[in-house]
Amino acid sequence: MGNTFGHLFRITTFGESHGGGVGVVIDGCPPRLEISVEEIQAELNRRRPGQSKITTPRNEADTCEILSGMVDGKTTGTPIAILVRNKDQRSQDYDEMAVKYRPSHADATYDEKYGIRNWQGGGRSSARETIGRVAAGAIAKKILQQVGGVEIIGYVKRIKDLEGAVDAETVTLEQVESNIVRCPDQDAADRMIDLIEQMRKEGDSIGGVVECVARHVPKSLGMPVFDKLEADLAKGIMSLPATKGFEIGSGFAGTLLTGSEHNDAFYTDDRGTIRTVTNRSGGVQGGISNGENILIRVAFKPTATIRKEQRTVTNAGEEVTLAAKGRHDPCVLPRAVPMVEAMMALVLCDHLLRQQGQCGVL
Question: Which pTM was predicted?
């Protein structure tokens, strides 16, 4: 019922923000993959709350426990279950929101659909659900790196109207992690941090754009028609909380070009490999990867839960105001970077296994 993603590399996430814990079951992971708890934990540490002054102060270590699917540091080919226990819930912060709907949040739509909702922390609509995705993404990244040397790097490209100058061809993880906003352009990062701090003090929030590049992606990943690679990437990325837009390659800017300006001319490199001179296609043509870098951009809206007073209604339809309590990110972008990377990795890993399953037999 919407909790499972993928075909051959399939994940199911579970748990609520203020329940006992959250996690994921990964089915279809190849056996004998060497992966450590520390590798998974490193990705979760990039996503966890309380990591800097510009994120939510909720104090969660997000320590992962691997419950099944591994022995002696290697995957067994059976389902891998990973659990992260919740430790620092403050459900009383949400008492008022038990009856008052947060504007632009999932409160009203969950009530309308199910007739009941977990109002403590937002339940399944909370960004804590993404813990399972990031944990699974760490495993997918390891498979992609081991099989093809694939490297996936996400970074904050823009916050509100502040945009960083980043070269997707050369950007490194070390550059991304060099500051708390995860923008490799340090000058832009400093201004972004100041702006987020200002929003936090005012009880407001802001959004922006995360850009993500996958390098050394094998050719031929993706299926015709409904399971095009960019279609699955769009679905995976847009399933993340607070996402409102997806672009690949030239994206909407490509609409300003003519065909002759936009087309990626082919050439043969010195190794005899067919390449493209430009990459406005974003590494995908006809729904299938062409071996060039896959470049995507994701728009994240401002965080819905803010301390500023807003007009709303109760679940009985009474018009009221709400100034939300609790601990929330004034900007989701810095913590969204590993989430975007994880979804990119999950889609590519799934299509890698599908390619091998269909086209690697004969």
Answer: 0.95
